[in-house]
Structures are given as structure tokens and as C-alpha cells.
Amino acid sequence: MIQPVGVDVYPGDHPCNWPAYIAAGPPWHFAIFKVTQGLDYRYDAWAARQRAPFSLSPRIGADLFVGYYHYLTLHQSGMMQADFAVRAVRGIQPDAAPGQLPLMVDVERGGQRIANPSHAQVEDVTRTFAGRYTELTGRTATLYGGELLRSVGVTDRLGCGRSAIALYGSRLPHDVIARTGTNLEHLMLWQYRGTEPQTAGPAGYPLEAPGCGRVDISALVLPGGLEALRELCS
């Protein structure tokens, strides 16, 4: 039996048929939408439209969950970005809405105006963002990342409570988990499948999502599974 899986999407992805995704049931248990990027882009109107079908499902908060992510811009204030992202999410739904996951902060190399971000830059902006998010909401953000976090040598979750790792393929080696600044106890999601046609996943795991086709797909690897996810949303 495979672990619960879900998708994350952004406005540049092709449109998803969310009622079909929701109706598919297990193993599809969550969806995460891009809501902001740096201090320059807000997608809350788009994210609200994606979220709307989930509000109608009796599964929401029981075995169906929704989240949002902020794409961190390393040349801008982490504190101001947290304020920006929280305002956008609160425009869609309150912090305590049923089935709402903690905000995910996406720390990647692409789109940065800093050519070669240093460990200090990544750590300072991310940790400031995470601290401000906790101050504003009482929750801890989830740190999403891959190559950039490993290349600058992060050694912890930079103030975030849980982690999500991007590594497309059929395996997630323990040394990769450690080099992404986390461990099995705090690892929440493994994004094993991207939109590129050549990327595969572990045996038996889906490579396309119902109603969505080819999008980023993650497996829930959080200890405790769906029950632990419900606790994070409470």
C-alpha cells in the first residue's frame, strides 16, 4: 500500500479539474497552491478559485487538506515577505480553517536576483521569514527545498517545523535528507515527481494526478501519516 500523495501547483500550470481530483479519493489527500512570491507577486485570487471546490467536500479536514506556499526572494526582507504572504492567505481563509496546512516557504535557486546565494543569505532570510510567520500565526512554516539548500550546506530547518524535499526519482537516500537540513522525524513531504516527462517515482506510485495530469506530486512521509497531518491543521 502506498503512502498518501498530493499535488502542488502554481498559476503557470495547466488548469486542474479539482472536483475530479477530490472525487478520486485515496491516495489523493492534499493540494498546495502558490500564493505569493517575494514582495512582487500575489496569486490569492487565483488560489481562492482553486481552493473553492475543496470547501464543498465533506472530506476536508478529515482526510483532505489544503495548503499554500510562498516563493522566497533572497534579496528582499524575510519579515516583510512573511507579512505579505500571511495577508494573502488570510484573504482566502482564516488561519484556523478546517484542513489548512501550515504555510510552506519555497527556497530555490530559480528566479533569484542573487547569482550565487550564500549560506548566510539563505539562512538569514529564511529564518527571519519563519520567525515572523510563527509570530503572526502561532504556527511553524514548512521548509521546501532541494538543490539550493544542499549546495549552501544548510544544517537545520532554518526555523521551520517540518520539511518538504524535492528530489525526483525512485529513492530518497538518507544522506540527501540530512544534507537538506532535516531528518526522518521532521520530514513531511517528498516531492518525487515533477512535470518533466522523464522523471519517475517509486514503484507503484502515481506519475499523474486525476483531473490534473502531469504536475508536481509529493508523498506524505510524515511519521503518523494522515493523523499527524490532521494535528498540524488543528
Q: What does this protein structure show overall?
A:
With 234 residues, the protein is α/β, with parallel strands linked by helices. The protein has one domain (5-233): Alpha-Beta Barrel (TIM Barrel), CATH 3.20.20.80. It is 32% helix and 21% strand. It contains 7 helices and 9 strands; from the N terminus they run βαββαβαβαβαβαββα. It has an 8-stranded mixed β-barrel, surrounded by 5 helices. Helix 3 links the parallel strand 4 and strand 5. Helix 3 (78-92) crosses helix 4 (119-137). The radius of gyration is 16 Å and the shape is globular. The mean pLDDT is 95.
Bin the strand percentage.
15-25%
Beta strands, count: 9
Report the CATH superfamily.
Glycosidases
Count of separate DSSP helical elements: 7
Structural class category = alpha/beta
Largest beta-sheet details? 8 strands, mixed, barrel
Instruction: Sum up the overall morphology in one term.
Output: globular
Level-2 CATH architecture: Alpha-Beta Barrel
What percent of residues adopt helix (DSSP H or I)? Answer: 25-40%
Run of helices and strands: EHEEHEHEHEHEHEEH
Look at the structure and give the mean pLDDT: 95
Q: Which CATH C-level class is it?
A: Alpha Beta
Extract low-pLDDT stretches: none
Give the strand order of the largest sheet, numbering strands 1, 2, ... along the chain: 1-2-4-5-6-7-8-9
Radius of gyration, in Å, reads 16 Å
CATH-defined topology: TIM Barrel
